[in-house]
Amino acid sequence: MVSNALSVDVEDWFQVGAFEKVIARDDWAALEHRVEANTDAVIDLFAEGGVKATFFTLGWVADRHPALMRRIADAGHEVASHGWDHQRVFSMGPEQFRADIARAQAVLEDATGQAVKGYRAPSFSIDKRTPWAHEVLAEAGYAYSSSVAPIGHDHYGWADAPRAAFRPVAGAELIELPVTTARFFGREVTTGGGFFRLLPGRVVYRAIDALNGAGQPAVFYFHPWEIDPGQPRVADAPLKSKLRHYSRLGAMAGKMRTLMAGHRWDRTDRVAAAEAEKLN
């Protein structure tokens, strides 16, 4: 039976890409922080479902909540990097990116005492504009990345990228695990995050079943704030951003329970290692 990669992008409600133009980074420290309580709720949800997962965590969050990082690791989950402060990779150059991932890695490893071997770009921002990004990750010693969304989207996407695991750097061991997509009314969408909240569950389940039937793992993601319907509302955010961010938050925990029960899940590092064996 194929093990699928279950992952959480650990960021707070005010750090999401949808609000980056209306909430300044300089204001983050003064806002209500809910990421610790929400992530603890996710840990409990995974314990209830009997699954292990990967928590791709911002260095900014880990720096302020080191005990949370230890609780994640102590529960048997993987702590991996989501960069420092959710700056999109295509907004940086190679040297800035190298510094960003090094800063985040140092804080994450200091908090957990474990090596960080996985990376996910904020907003899946490794795409055709960043041909150097995978090379930087390979040089830094990462075993895998899960940073590519092979779709077209106004915020992210690399529509012509491979759908299955691949080695993006010739001669390097680095594996890229793109997030899983599904067809919905003729449109290719990711199966995690907001799309998972909004789509009928069967659309996602069918996509996972099709991959597993072909012997391939699915790669699923969501965020701790997605199980928090009581989070603050950003009044001056664009309507489209509000709809994406707040729709069906109350349904997410229940949908996650169904998802976990219907498929086999594991940490992303272990899924990446299995895929690497196939590519050898």
Brief synopsis:
The chain contains ten helices and ten strands. By secondary structure, the chain is α/β, with parallel strands linked by helices.
Structural features, described:
α3 (66-74) packs across α4. The strands form 3 sheets. Strands 1, 2, 3, 9 and 10 form a 5-stranded parallel beta sheet that branches. 38% of the residues lie in helices and 12% in strands. It has helices at 35-49, 59-64, 66-74, 94-112, 133-139, 193-198, 201-213, 239-246, 252-262, 268-279, and strands at residues 4-10, 54-57, 78-81, 118-119, 144-145, 175-176, 181-184, 187-190, 219-222, 265-266. It is globular, with a radius of gyration of 17 Å. With 280 residues, it is of the alpha/beta class. It starts with a strand and ends with a helix.
What is the strand and helix layout of this fold?
Blueprint: E1 4-10, H1 35-49, E2 54-57, H2 59-64, H3 66-74, E3 78-81, H4 94-112, E4 118-119, H5 133-139, E5 144-145, E6 175-176, E7 181-184, E8 187-190, H6 193-198, H7 201-213, E9 219-222, H8 239-246, H9 252-262, E10 265-266, H10 268-279
Helix pairs in contact: 3-4
Q: What characteristics describe this protein?
A:
280 residues, alpha/beta, 5-stranded parallel sheet, 3-stranded parallel sheet, 10 helices, globular
